[in-house]
Design a protein that fits this description.
The complex is a heterodimer of chains A (205) and B (212). Helices cover 55% and strands 10% of the residues of chain A. By secondary structure, chain A is mainly α. In chain A, the strands form 2 sheets. A 3-stranded antiparallel β-sheet of chain A has the order 4-3-5. In chain A, strand 3 (69-73) and strand 4 (76-80) form a beta hairpin. The longest helix of chain A has 28 residues, at 95-122. Chain B has helices spanning 39-57, 74-83, 87-116, 124-134, 140-155, 164-181, 185-194, and strands at residues 20-22, 29-32, 61-65, 68-72, 159-162, 210-211. Chain B is elongated. In chain B, the strands form 2 sheets. In chain B, strands 4-3-5 form a 3-stranded antiparallel β-sheet. Chain B has a two-stranded antiparallel ribbon with strand order 1-2. In chain B, a hairpin with a 6-residue loop joins strand 1 and strand 2 (29-32). With 212 residues, chain B is mainly alpha-helical. The model of chain B has no long low-confidence stretch (mean pLDDT 89). In chain B, helix 1 packs antiparallel against helix 3, helix 2 (74-83) runs antiparallel to helix 3 and helix 3 (87-116) packs across helix 4. The chains are: A mainly alpha (205), B mainly alpha (212). The interface between A and B is large, with 78 and 74 residues.
């Protein structure tokens, strides 16, 4: 049994309130219920996602190369990168924390960028519905986990606010933290601009 | 209703409370009818907002090194970054941990109040529209994990005292999650439509789509 798809009948679902709206031939259409602009598909979804994804990949380099914070302890300076922070927890034997930071700051952003790249490359190919279902699930997970990468940025903020003990110890945020924040925001925006309906547009065209 | 993920058009009826509806084609979530009516999320949101205000009013963590102590609050974290030459990052942190959660708590409360007493409160449609897109940017729960990580990181070099603000924040997050479990955005829009009063979008105006 095959149910019709909304676009085949000249209908579109409002992106904000789910209202199904009849789409006339041309011109802008606004949702009669919530007033947002209605589109068959998010406009320029793929090029926007590509642009944001590439930008996030570029920012990912300084985010890992430059220190995210500098700690001064009794006059001695020590800068640490994201990976350095994970290594420090490992040295101290804090396996759980090393795992949390590694997952949130390294695994999740990388996995997000890889899965968006995979979806963008594959969305233009034909594939069976079972494959489309997998892609849709991958997208859903990608959209969901993005926020958790902010853990490291918040940790740096908390340390900056608290560790200001004059001559004893201070913490200053590093430029790597700013780049990392940009990676998180850009990958989140990339995931939001990807229209999952495009995954299903290919299998019956 | 058309599925958000695969665009399959299907007729959906109102299911019994406690049930959820999945797309017939791709199995993704369409909507759910929560138990407990609208009073439950309303009460939970009110409690959540109060706890969230308390979380902002009291220090989260106090650090003590040999008699010198410093404390920080929720807003203090973003503000510290802002002051230490990281203006953009500070604004991002302030937005995701203070501005967005505050807007979600108070905005949801406003919309639920209007729906509960069948009043088309001014700006209620715009508020619900804003809330529909805001949730990914709410990061209070991520922030709590960060506090715990920071606590362990500092415990080696100084004495750390957990303040009342952290407990209030935890409570606010739990209530917020519980309230969200008691609401469904599709049903909220349906309820708002059912309230009589001035329509904010005049039907028949050019550009306004036709309900199908």
């Amino acid at each position: 049994m095959s149910l019709p798809r909304a676009r085949e009948l000249g209908l579109a679902s409002c992106g904000s309130c789910f209202q199904v709206v009849r789409m006339p031939g041309g011109g802008e259409v606004y949702c009669p219920r919530c007033g947002s602009r209605v589109h068959f598909r998010q406009p320029h979804s793929l090029s926007r996602t590509w642009a944001l994804l590439i930008a996030s990949m570029i920012f990912y380099i300084p985010a890992n190369v430059y220190p995210v914070m500098t700690n001064t302890y009794l006059g001695a300076n020590s800068s640490s990168t994201i990976l350095g922070g994970v290594a420090l927890f490992l040295e101290e034997g804090d396996w759980l924390l090393a795992l949390i930071i590694f997952t949130a700051s390294i695994l999740v952003p990388l996995a997000k960028m890889m899965s968006l790249l995979y979806l963008l490359v594959n969305v233009r190919r034909r594939h069976p519905p079972s494959r489309a279902r997998q892609h849709a699930r991958l997208y859903r997970i990608t959209e969901l986990v993005g926020r958790w990468s902010m853990v490291d940025v918040f940790v740096i903020g908390i340390l900056t606010a608290l560790v200001q003990m004059g001559a004893i110890s201070t913490v200053e945020p590093g430029i790597g933290a700013l780049a990392f924040g940009a990676v998180v925001v850009l990958t989140m925006l990339a995931a939001i601009s990807f229209d999952p309906r495009l995954i299903w547009d290919r299998d019956n065209s | 209703m058309a599925c958000r993920e695969c665009d399959t058009l299907q007729r959906v009826s109102l299911v019994a409370p406690g049930c959820k509806v999945l797309c017939r084609e791709c199995g993704s979530f369409l909507y759910r009818h929560p138990k407990g009516g609208i009073e439950r999320p309303l009460a939970l949101m009110l409690g959540g907002l109060l706890l969230y205000l308390l979380a902002n009013a009291f220090p989260l963590v106090t650090l003590d090194i040999g008699g010198i102590s410093r404390e920080t609050s929720l807003a203090g974290t973003g503000w510290a970054l802002y002051q230490h030459d990281m203006k953009l990052l500070g604004i991002l942190v302030l937005a995701t941990t203070v501005v967005v959660p505050m807007t979600i708590f108070s905005g949801t409360l406003y919309v639920l109040t209007g729906l509960r007493w069948h009043k088309r409160l001014p700006g209620i449609r715009g508020t619900l529209l804003l809330l529909s897109h805001m949730h990914p940017w709410e990061m209070a729960d991520v922030f709590v994990i960060s506090v715990l990580v920071a606590l362990v990181k500092m415990s080696g070099m100084a004495e750390v005292i957990v303040g009342g603000g952290l407990y209030a924040l935890l409570g606010a997050i739990v209530l917020g999650i519980a309230a969200r479990a008691g609401m469904d955005i599709f049903l909220l829009w349906n309820m708002l439509e059912g309230i009589p009063g001035r329509r904010h979008v005049p039907e028949g105006r050019p550009g306004v789509g036709e309900v199908a």
